[in-house]
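Example record

One chain of 78 residues, shown exactly as stored in the release files.
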Amino acid sequence: MALRNLPQQVFSVLMSMEPAIAAIAGWALLNQETGPIRWLAICLLMTASVGITLTTAQSGSPKQKDDGEDPVPVPLPE
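Predicted structure tokens for this chain:
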């Protein structure tokens, strides 16, 4: 229920934090080691997600024109 009220930008940043949370949980619960290359990859992933979220929020995403009509379904080839 909480995710339905969460803005898309916040959700995307939270999802990009998932690998970091998993790495910390693996270290704390399973005593797994995560090397510096993996931490760098996780940081780059989170930075990219925050960056794209900020640039999209500032420039405004293009919205599709809604003329009130339902789209016509395209038949799938058999």
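Notes: The mean pLDDT is 80.
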